[in-house]
Design a protein that fits this description.
Number of strands: 2
Largest sheet: 2 strands, antiparallel
Radius of gyration: 16 Å
Shape: elongated
Number of domains: 1
Distance between the termini: 33 Å
Mean pLDDT: 83
Low-confidence stretches: none
Order of helices and strands: HHHEEH
Length: 89
């Protein structure tokens, strides 16, 4: 089972932006979050970009992780309810 440390490394940027867009109508805020995700990190003096994960220790990372988890757990809960209804029939 992944730890909370590895969880932030595996967030898909595409899904995360879709989740943010679902709740936030202001495109300026969405663009700011996209820029934050695309900023990358410095490793050995070189900028490294990633299409997954958020920067650990970044001030926005806990917020983005919570948004992602909200939608993932909602989807999982809906799928489990649907399966339970099918099993009852």
């Amino acid at each position: 089972m992944p730890t909370s440390v590895s969880f932030t490394d595996t967030l898909d940027h595409g899904w995360l932006v879709k989740f943010v867009e679902h709740r936030i109508a202001d495109r300026r805020v969405v663009r700011l979050i996209q820029k934050w995700l695309n900023a990358g990190v410095l490793e050995k003096g070189k900028r490294v970009k990633s299409e997954i994960g958020t920067v650990q220790g970044g001030s926005i990372s806990p917020l983005l992780s919570n948004i992602y988890l909200h939608y993932v757990t909602r989807s999982l809960g809906s799928a489990m309810e649907t399966e339970a209804r099918r099993a009852e029939k």
